[in-house]
Amino acid sequence: MTTLKDISTIEDIQLMVDTFYDKVRQDDLLGPIFNDKLQDRWPMHLQKMYGFWQTILFDVRAYSGTPFPPHKQLPVDKTHFDRWVFLFNSSIDALFAGTITEEAKMRAANMAYMFNHKIDYFRNLENQ
């Protein structure tokens, strides 16, 4: 049995992000939404995600911005976020193990919960 190493380098983050988004792009539920939104901008999105996760996990200022606004109008609900978390966790569990890996999974789950909550909040405001 191979022992998995923890996420520790930018190359690890790139592998994590690339593997995860390969699954997202091919997923029956998430793929159409992401592919329609990003179209030919996938390379730019992946670069942004490398910086985002480097900032989150390594406390390196590689990302600046506000990640929620681009997601606000997406046609998604809890089912989509649950799938997103499942794909994220299964992607990195196949590649890595350790403290930073667990931190990444916790952060992803928290972001999914927060994004879903905020999207619901704004939708409810619009429907009042």
From TrEMBL:
<keyword id="KW-0349">Heme</keyword>
<dbReference type="InterPro" id="IPR009050">
    <property type="entry name" value="Globin-like_sf"/>
</dbReference>
<dbReference type="InterPro" id="IPR012292">
    <property type="entry name" value="Globin/Proto"/>
</dbReference>
<protein>
    <submittedName>
        <fullName>Globin</fullName>
    </submittedName>
</protein>
<keyword id="KW-0813">Transport</keyword>
<keyword id="KW-0408">Iron</keyword>
<keyword id="KW-0479">Metal-binding</keyword>
<dbReference type="Pfam" id="PF01152">
    <property type="entry name" value="Bac_globin"/>
</dbReference>
<dbReference type="InterPro" id="IPR001486">
    <property type="entry name" value="Hemoglobin_trunc"/>
</dbReference>
